[in-house]
Amino acid sequence: MPKDSGIGASSKRREDIRFLTGTGKYTDDINIHGQLYVHFLRADVAHAKLNGVDTAEAAAMPGVVRIFTGADFEAVGSIPCGWQITDRHGQPMQEPRHPVLAHGKIRHVGEPVAAVVAETRAQARDAAEAIVLDYDELPAVVDMKAAVAEGATKVHDELTSNLCYDWGFVEENKAATDAAFEAAAHVTTLELVNNRLVANPMEPRVAVGEYDRADDMHTLHTTSQNPHVIRLLMGAFVLGIPEHKLRVVAPDVGGGFGTKIFHYQEEAFCTFAAKALNRPVKWTSTRSEAFMSDAHGRDHVSKIQLALDADNNFTAIRTETYANMGAYLSTFAPSVPTWLHGTLMAGNYKTPLVYVNVKAVFTNTVPVDAYRGAGRPEATYQLERVIDMAARELGVDPVALRRQNYITQFPYATPVAVEYDTGDYNATMDKLTEIADFAGFDARRKESEARGKLRGLGVNSYIEACGIAPSNLVGQLGARAGLYDAATVRVNATGSISVMVGAHSHGQGHETSFPQVISEMIGIPEDQIDIVHGDTSKIPFGMGTYGSRSLAVCGSAMVRAAEKVINKAKKIAAHLLEASEGDIELKDGTFSVAGTDKSVAWGDVTLAAYVPHNYPLTDIEPGLEETAFYDPANFTYPAGAYACEVELDPETGHVKIERFSAADDFGNVINPMIVSGQVHGGIAQGIGQALLENCAYDADGQLISASYMDYAMPRADDLPFYSVDHSCQTPCTHNPLGVKGCGEAGAIGSPPSVVNAVIDAIQSGGMNVAHIDMPLTPSRVWAAMHAARTDAA
Amino acid sequence: MYAFDIARPTTLDEAKAAIAAGGQALSGGQTLIPTLKARLAMPETLVSLHGIADLKGVSTDSAGRICVKGATVHRAVAEAVADSFPALSYLASRIGDPAVRNRGTIGGSVANNDPSACYPAAVLACDATVCTDRREIAADDYFQGMFTTALEEDEIVTEVKFPVPQAAAYEKFIQPASRFPLVAVFVARFADGVRVAITGASESGVFRWSAAEEALSANFTPDALDGLSVDADGMIGDLHGSKDYRAHLCGVMAKRAVARAV
Fold this sequence. Notes:
The complex is a heterodimer of chains A (793) and B (262).
Chain A: H1 16-20, E1 36-42, E2 48-54, H2 56-59, E3 64-69, E4 105-106, E5 112-118, H3 121-128, E6 132-137, H4 144-147, E7 163-169, H5 174-183, E8 186-194, E9 206-212, E10 217-222, H6 227-239, E11 246-249, H7 265-277, E12 281-284, H8 287-293, E13 300-308, E14 314-326, E15 353-362, H9 376-394, H10 398-405, E16 412-413, E17 419-420, H11 425-435, H12 441-450, E18 454-463, H13 471-476, E19 485-491, E20 497-501, H14 510-522, E21 529-532, H15 550-577, E22 584-587, E23 590-593, E24 599-601, H16 602-610, E25 625-630, E26 639-648, E27 655-665, H17 672-692, E28 722-725, H18 745-764, H19 778-792
Helix pairs in contact in A: 9-18, 14-15, 15-16, 17-18
Chain B: E1 5-7, H1 12-20, E2 24-26, H2 32-37, E3 45-48, E4 58-60, E5 66-69, H3 74-80, H4 86-93, H5 98-101, H6 106-112, H7 119-125, E6 129-132, E7 136-138, H8 139-142, E8 157-162, E9 167-174, E10 181-190, E11 193-199, E12 207-208, H9 210-218, H10 243-261
Parallel strand pairs in B: 1-3, 2-3
Antiparallel strand pairs in B: 4-5, 5-8, 6-7, 6-8, 9-10, 10-11, 11-12
Helix pairs in contact in B: 3-4
């Protein structure tokens, strides 16, 4: 019988009351007396030498307080990059300066060139139109392979080329991998594109800077997934503000999907200008600005090869990827195609040799960084597409080929430096076989064919590394921060609890699921527990929410802090019950002495902690509040198997997803309903990438998918009802809750099965189409079929 | 958006006066408002046609034509002609989303003549008459290319009169992002022949496919279109579909429209 509270219960999301009734408090809801508004004049050319910015006419316009240009920020630090990659030759990556406002050069459409601060938003925008830019346009660097060709125009004149780094992983495996390909019975090669995406959270970014001259205190309200990270990056690296003089607040945030991890120029600008003008300064992004200033995601061009022996065992994998960095290095950009991608290239398979080469490239485009899944979708897509292609080439069942090569013994050390602690890939494939009703597929295909349609079934496995991340490991890999997290459990006198957590909730439901854990541990109702997050002045510390890390890392910190609280409470209870501490048991909110009927309620113990009249003051302090920092011992490895079934209109190329099934192993699950919701959302984004979404630039570096008229977001009627299951559970072996993380799985696991399904449908119609690049729009699918029909004719 | 004044006339004469004084007519605003928000136009005065009762409603005239007043919203058309002209009702019921259908008007649509708008296909295929504040214009004369019509600068579309075909259907293949037609075809069979109008596809805006009309006039079945094709030259080619793809879809959508109409 399902539980109705605590771990494993589908408690209703308490935060939805305010989200669904319009009473959430978002950054744009924050308005401060005396507030000014900034409008950024953004570049409308991709690449130019910027000779001057004439602000004279604009500065005289009504309401204008001041206009800032790049020259105002010469003494200010560069927007920092949080991860340094060391290349194949032991050299550090090339790292260009990233100015708050463009100075001397414009490097992408949408780059802020000047900032007009005025009394009203409209006045700021009016004045921006009167600014005259003097620039000489330069050839735009857009195509990655052309960007690294000899003699290419450089995005950054001070760098030696447009190559940020050339990374080999594991470099020592390269020769052995190449030898394995020489010896292979069969080699499958696939070249593919992982399409560039725009995250498009429902809430655009907003920043409000505030400065209190009396105590030299800066406050930044911002749409962030990680306010402490912003405080660190902006305070220490850009503006030189010590932590105790900088408060960063991220209130309700309307979706992040990665793009609100990063520190952006607009945040630094509003903080800087608030002090310069001694008035609050607010910026609210329009949707149009978001398209050309939020960090984009994906954008890899890859070649993957799979070597098999005569018995169809995988013997080696070799990849070469060009990864677009855009014009500047966003906060975590260099780590995405390397440590979040190369380390997953073994997938669920016991392939003994893997070699990954990644060339990161600067182009005149918006910076590219982590987007839901970040590196892991790119790895999964390559691997699960090439395996499907190999199965077709060899004439074997793609599921059987996967099963034959699955890792089945754990822990398992991959050839790409990570150790999977636990998993059961056959179990999730068994579950998928059942929920996706593979057995009924042939009948459904016949039914489709009777209506003149083609039907395809696509399957894939996936694995991801979540719970980012063990600090000592990522430090060796170039991270410039630790990736632990922190929590404070504050028990109030009457027994209710506030938990201050470093993880930020912006859709994940922490305010509901985290109290379930505490409720389970102590045995008090969930509504006695509240979560506090998103404000550096209220929470001890935190690295924030991304990489499906909140529960596995911050949740573990919360458990450790709660354990400290319980241990102390037991001491108090022992005193009150005149018993030995070792005999005290806590169950259902009551402390009792083992083997007796003596007991004391949770609330009486907490009251004693704050009203210590009868209290062991010589042994323990009054009060009941504990903090813990938790640094994970390893990544967690959620894994699973996904299936997509499509119906294809052979006349138009239109693909309709008829069924989508996901069997995930997330380890232990706190709230099954929230987990299902996370998987649903992830699959929607994965299907969006596979069929609809495409961020496109033309050869001049103009963004041609710059609005919803041309950038196709998935709508409800593009998606089927999903069948999701997370009953296969191999608990994580190294965190206290045995949890793995579920936020990104859907986006990682779904694109390959969609594409595999479409290829299956096309081939069932007798057309020899081996691959189509995402998004599989009707136009692209038709063109591929048309070419195959023409070739065959 | 730049600041502007708004006039809210309640009669056509008031509206004409305000437009003659330099005002910009605003009907449903489904194109104009986004244009203003992007600061791509700077009218000093918008003249809303929304409050003019005489510009709203659907009726049938003595010739049996369905007459839709210019400021009638799509939802109202869809409801009003559900029985009398199902193909037009179907078209109106699938423009944009509910918010669009409750604001957007037929007059705004045909005045703007977006090359991907739905209504122009019905107007042209039915040989409808576009009535303005000063004249009546036959559909074949009215549409003059992408965003171009026979309207003068200050002319207001007051009504569109549709002869009701014996059989008709509209088939739309959507552009995945905007959900405007990538290619959409309206076929209309009248006693004296068949007309086929295609929107979304051509760089010249809505157009008649005369070869298909000829074939279908002789034999109103999908098979009559076998072997016919639209020339890819002059088709729109963009992120969402090549010229060849659009030309191909013209044939597919036309066949499907006929199949549904018969």
